[in-house]
Amino acid sequence: MDWTQLPLGPLQTNCYVLSHESTCILFDPGSEGEQLVQWLNENKLKPIAILLTHAHFDHIGAIGALKQKFDIPVYLHKEEEQWLEDPALNGSARFGMGTIKAPPADVILDQEKELTVGPFKLQLLYTPGHSPGSLSYYFEEGGALFAGDTLFMGSIGRTDLPGGNHQILIDSIHEKIMSLPEETIVLPGHGPATSIIAEMDSNPFLNGF
Description:
Layout lengths: L1 E7 L4 E8 L2 E5 L5 H10 L3 E6 L11 H8 L3 E4 L9 H4 L16 E3 L4 E4 L2 E7 L8 E5 L4 E5 L2 E2 L2 E2 L9 H12 L7 E4 L5 E2 H7 L7
């Protein structure tokens, strides 16, 4: 199984494509829906699901195009169930990015569990703080964590948006992410990949863990 990082849109939000043979799942398709559909077709990949780490506008903008083309389900935490269709909640109204909406989620996630989607097995981790419904998806077989905007290389997610909470974010990182194997690759919502051990050693926001 392979993963590909595709930075999309003006905020260069990382969409990740986790693939096995010709089947794939998509994490956070934030923008450029037509281009993303074209990329999938050119690479002969058929998506079977969209998994969202959270529902801020820069992570959801391509959902409509993907659902129209492939008719695939969207997974989202229950705390943000209303955000996809509401620009005030997803933040697009606040940041002057135009009205960004997406079709409602098909699968509402409300507890930590092993999530099986086609050939892919993922451990669902509830990691709020950046937003109230933030999720991280641990792909044990590939030693990777799709972390959304929870943890970045040398930084952490912002918590000044509605529903954000700094202490809750720090607790999420400490309790859910830093307990993973040190060699785990962290695939963030923006910027380059990092690892648990690298962030333990050098992330200034995590000093004192």
